[in-house]
Design a protein that fits this description.
Elements lengths: L3 H19 L12 H27 L5 H34 L3
Helix pairs in contact: 2-3
Length: about 100
Amino acid sequence: MMTPLAAARAYGAAVKQANTLGDGGGGEAVQAPDFGKILQGAMEQTMKSTQTAEHMMVQQQAGQAELIDAVTAVSSAELQLQSVIAIRDQVISAYQEIMRMPI
């Protein structure tokens, strides 16, 4: 299971990559990407990975793909799903902490 620190590092790496891609090299400030868009992208990538894994399993059962390729695709999909779940859990935990704060 992914630790909160690992999830935070993954988010930081995604922000850094988005800023690098968005920087035209002119040195101007780049607005940080929207957290919702990052989550949506992660969910879309997880769905694609899951569909690829399912496709590889079907191909392997039909004898059209190697077992190791199917296992690798399933493992990749599982890791991505665990990452998304860890991020979701941290967001829920942060929301609950905010709701407990006195006004």
